[in-house]
Design a protein that fits this description.
By secondary structure, the protein is mostly helical. The protein has one domain. It is built from six helices and no strands. The protein has helices spanning 3-10, 19-61, 67-104, 109-146, 149-181, 185-189. Helix 2 packs antiparallel against helix 3 and helix 4 (109-146) packs antiparallel against helix 5 (149-181). It is elongated.
């Protein structure tokens, strides 16, 4: 009897993945996609639709004719909106990372490698949001309350830059998802 025959005889045949693993992997994929859509969609809607429209409305209605009051209302309204979005993003990022873990269970090395890279991009984007939420927003509030509008404007520009920096990072996530599955997004839909 050869060594190969001995191994075959004493080693169990490869078994299919348990049904729970398939279910959790599928559920994790759906939850990841929903969390991703909420994060990216919220960022785009708030930054490209809500903020400019609130600024425009405040300008055309000239609240009490006072420029400082207009800026305070604008900063307060948009600041509160971005604070709320940050909490949604923290939850979405955590859900995406947990989903990545469950999606990788029982998968091959190549799949796990791309999932780990995708999780790294998620962590990087979360770090940008944490910098905005825990550092820049409080500093902007402080500058505004002290009337230091030059500092506020610098911090606001940095905040916008970090928000824009999230976009390419977030847009890499579906690319990595498509690469790890070996199918294009169109093939997955069809």
């Amino acid at each position: 009897m050869s060594m190969g025959q001995v191994r075959e005889r004493h080693m169990p045949a490869a078994r299919a993945a348990p049904a729970w693993r398939s279910f959790t992997g599928g559920l994790a994929t759906v939850l990841h996609a929903v969390a991703y859509a909420l994060w990216l969609g919220g960022l785009i809607v708030l930054g490209a639709v809500v903020a400019p429209n609130v600024a425009h409305l405040i300008q055309i209605h000239a609240i009490a004719g006072d420029g400082a009051l207009r800026r305070a209302v604008l900063a307060g309204t948009i600041g509160a909106s971005f604070r709320a979005l940050n909490y949604v993003v923290y939850a979405c990022g955590a859900l995406m990372l947990i989903s990545d873990r469950f999606e990788a269970l029982g998968q091959g090395r190549e799949f796990r490698k791309w999932t780990l890279l995708r999780a790294g991009f998620t962590l990087f984007a979360l770090a940008l949001v944490a910098l905005q939420g825990f550092d820049l927003l409080p500093a902007m509030d402080s500058a505004q309350s002290l009337g230091d509008m030059a500092r506020f404007d610098r911090l606001h520009a940095l905040y916008e830059d970090l928000a824009l920096a999230q976009l390419p990072v977030l847009l890499c996530i579906p690319i990595m998802t498509a690469i790890r599955t070996g199918r294009s997004p169109r093939e997955r839909i069809a």
